[in-house]
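[step 3/7] fold_predict: job queued, chain A
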Amino acid sequence: MTWRLHMAALLIAAPAAATEHEVKTYGHVLEACYLAAENAEGRTACIGKMAEACMETEEGGYSTFGMASCNTGEMLVWDFFLNTEYMNTMDWAKAADASEGENFPEFANRVESLRDAQRAWIAFRDAECGMAYAQWGAGSMRHISGTGCVLQMTAERTIELVGYREFQQ
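[step 4/7] structure written:
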């Protein structure tokens, strides 16, 4: 079974209404932190804040199901940020390629490089988090480990994408 199937099974185990609840109830915690962060260090400090607030507040928040649901809720918010930052970084890459392409067309390859890197990163994340899930075998920790991995890696990639643009400014 692939990681995507594990993730699908996990999301089935955590009903959409539960995940929607976490996002609606605690998403503001992560959003406020992320928007207030001025640099990569500040954004990194936001990782886990939403899931922690969820686990602390929800009845059963520290159960296996509760932790996996809270992790999944935070991961979905980071995934929204990731998609936004990917599009912002792609816009930056297009503008940089257009600017440089006139004089140095051989170096105007940021768009393709970013697209290739993102596709490779998705494959790596899926494989890496598949292993985080699989290492626990039939144990219930697989859900916490798998969702925690996807949350962490998605957040870190989001911050990396912003860094591509910030480095050039």
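[step 5/7] annotate
The chain has a mean pLDDT of 88.
The radius of gyration is 18 Å.
exit 0
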